[in-house]
Design goal:
The complex is a heterodimer of chains A (about 110) and B (about 120). By secondary structure, chain A is an all-beta fold. Chain A has no helices and eleven strands. In chain A, the strands form two sheets. In chain A, strands 2, 4, 5, 9, 10 and 11 form a six-stranded mixed sheet that branches. In chain A, strands 1-3-8-7-6 form a five-stranded antiparallel sheet, with no helix packed on it. Chain A starts with a strand and ends with a strand. In chain B, about 0% of the residues lie in helices and about 55% in strands. Classes of the chains: A mainly beta (about 110), B mainly beta (about 120). Chains A and B meet through strand 5 and strand 10 of A and strand 5, strand 9 and strand 10 of B.
């Protein structure tokens, strides 16, 4: 059974600081997704990581995938308040387009002024 | 208009009632999914459908059933609702037909269901 663990579960950080969210998973996979969820809202796709060593960046967020270590990271650079949200990683064991996703428990990020 | 529309957005009902949550999409995607979200547990897959004639159980299908009425419509039913089915429910879609596609799933806005 695939298990996906994120840490930390809650992160409070000051604006301007850097931090990393970790996503570990238990079964070999080379397909991992990061989503953002604002309170009471839907999930928004952030990154699609499809191979070992994949790195994607968008603004202050950078995601990477190490399939050998079964680890993905979401790095936040110089955090701003607008990044406050819950971030989920999700692992897909299938081939082709996103199929059966197993989600992590989420990391709630709070960026304080 | 939203690409993935869920109705109702909120519902309060009583134990034992039959509930149907509906999902429709205008994205033209072939695959559709139902998830539930509970605090501290992330999202868990209830059912998924890769086309109109293909329905599959997910991680937590007990107590739920689904119907794929058309490519664009996928409904979730709780035959006899119980309080521990109180949760936020999401419908999602994905596209397997675009060649070379490795697209993420796209989510609706969710249905908040409370069972008293």
């Amino acid at each position: 059974e695939l298990k996906v663990e994120q840490n930390p579960l809650f992160l409070s950080m000051q604006e301007g600081k850097n931090y990393t969210i970790y996503c570990n998973y238990s079964t070999t996979s080379d397909r991992l997704y990061w989503y953002r969820q604002d309170p009471g809202k839907s999930l928004e796709s952030l990154f699609v990581l499809l191979s070992n060593g994949a790195v994607k960046q968008e603004g202050r967020l950078m995601a990477s995938l190490d399939t050998k270590a079964r680890l993905s990271t979401l790095h936040i650079t110089a955090a701003v308040h607008d990044l406050s949200a819950t971030y989920f990683c999700a692992v897909d064991l299938s081939s082709g387009t996103a199929s059966k996703l197993t989600f992590g428990t989420g990391t709630r990020l709070q960026v304080t002024l | 208009d939203a690409d993935v529309t869920q109705t109702p957005r909120n519902r309060i009902t009583k134990t034992g009632k039959r509930i149907m949550l509906e999902c429709s999409q205008t994205k033209g995607h072939d695959r559709m999914y139902w998830y539930r979200q509970d605090p501290g547990l992330g999202l868990r897959l209830i059912y998924y459908s890769f086309d109109v004639k293909d329905i599959n159980k997910g991680e937590i299908s007990d107590g739920y059933s689904v119907s794929r009425q058309a490519q664009a419509k996928f409904s979730l039913s709780l035959e006899s609702a119980i309080p521990n089915q109180t949760a936020l429910y999401f419908c999602a879609t994905s596209d397997s037909l675009r060649q070379g596609s490795n697209q993420p799933q796209h989510f609706g806005d969710g249905t908040r269901l409370s069972i008293l």
